Every structure is written in structure tokens, then in C-alpha cells.
Amino acid sequence: MANRHRGEIDAEIGGVRRTLVLTLGALAELEDAFDAADLVALAGRFESGRLKARDLIAIIGAGLRGAGETVRDQDVAAMTVEGGVAGFARIAGDLLTATFGSETP
Q1: Do 64 and 76 touch, CB atoms closer than 8 A?
Q2: How far is CA 6 from the centre of its chain?
Q3: DSSP bridge partners of 11
Q4: Is 84 left (phi over 0), alpha (psi -120 to 50) or beta?
Q5: Is it the case that residue 75 has pLDDT exceeding 70?
Q6: Is residue 54 predicted with pLDDT exceeding 70?
Q7: Which residues contact 17 (CB under 8 A, 6 or more apart)?
Q8: What is the pLDDT of residue 97?
């Protein structure tokens, strides 16, 4: 079960209940993927609310790897979630809120 105090979330992806977390390593991976100078720039990019499908794949993939799964972005791209792209956007949004936000569940 996910611990929101550690920035973890649970989500059903590809028919499997999984935990996602953006660890420091996962955040460094996203800084590289989005060519962000630092964490402030990375958070600012996400605050715009405008994410491409490739962004959702990178965020979710980093979150899965942060939680210890061995998964590549192309594996994430082939997975399905309930609600389709809106479901992926919800998962990414929940993960970013758990990581950067102060919202409580």
C-alpha cells in the first residue's frame, strides 16, 4: 500500500495494481528527459498543465522505476489503464501532486 508521506501512490496499470514514487533518482531522470536545469524548473514545467503523451510515459515510467520496477518507457507506452489517456493523465497528476504538492489524501 502506498505511503503518501513518502510521495508514493497506487495505480492500476496494465491490469496490475502498482506503486509509483518519484525518488531523487527518478527526478534526476526526469530532469534529463525534460532538459530541466533543476528541480524548480522541472516543477515549473509540470505546473503548466500541458503534457504530451511522451511526457506521461516518462513520468509514469520514472515513477514505476522509482518504486523498484524494471520497466522501460516503451513498456509503459504499451500498457493500458482504465479511462485511456485521461487515466494516464490522472495517474501522472496524482504522482506529481504526491511529489511536489502539499495536498493530503
Answers
A1: yes
A2: 14
A3: 18
A4: left
A5: yes
A6: yes
A7: 10, 11
A8: 92
d(C-alpha 71, C-alpha 68), whole Å: 9
Q: What letter represents residue 6's amino acid?
A: R
- pLDDT for 102 equals 55
Average pLDDT over residues 76-81: 96
Helices (H), 1-105: 24-33, 39-47, 53-66, 73-78, 84-100
Q: Is 16 helix (H, G, I), strand (E, B) or coil?
A: strand
Grid coordinates representing 77 are 507506452
C-alpha cell at 29: 531522470
Neighbours of 1 (CB within 10 A): 6
Q: What mean pLDDT is predicted for residues 2-28? A: 93
